[in-house]
Design a protein that fits this description.
about 30% strand; alpha+beta; four-stranded antiparallel sheet; 3 helices
Length: about 100
């Protein structure tokens, strides 16, 4: 059974006491770019496109980047757009 394509917008916020957010963002974006998934980087969140498993796996990896760069915890805001009968693409949202 093929899994439908979803889009997910996410934003990772490290705790403010341990680090400067700017130090984490370039590293998170490198993980996104290296993932092989389609993506769109916006001013408030990054949107990725793939099957649900791939999308959540990438978000989990991105959270770990925050921890690896010095945060003791991360808060992640996630929005997922899913349609069981067809794909939801970044291109659809941008057109």
């Amino acid at each position: 059974m093929e899994t439908a394509t979803v889009t997910a917008g996410f934003q990772i916020l490290p705790d403010g006491r341990d680090m400067n957010t700017d130090g984490m963002i370039p590293e998170v974006l490198e993980v996104v770019k290296d993932s092989g998934l389609k993506y769109h980087i916006g001013p408030m969140e990054t949107v990725i496109e793939g099957n649900l498993h791939e999308v959540f796996e990438l978000i989990q990896t991105a959270q770990q980047v925050g921890i690896n760069t010095g945060a003791s915890e991360c808060i992640t805001n996630i929005k997922v757009h899913y349609k069981p009968n067809g794909g939801v693409t970044i291109g659809d949202k941008l057109s």
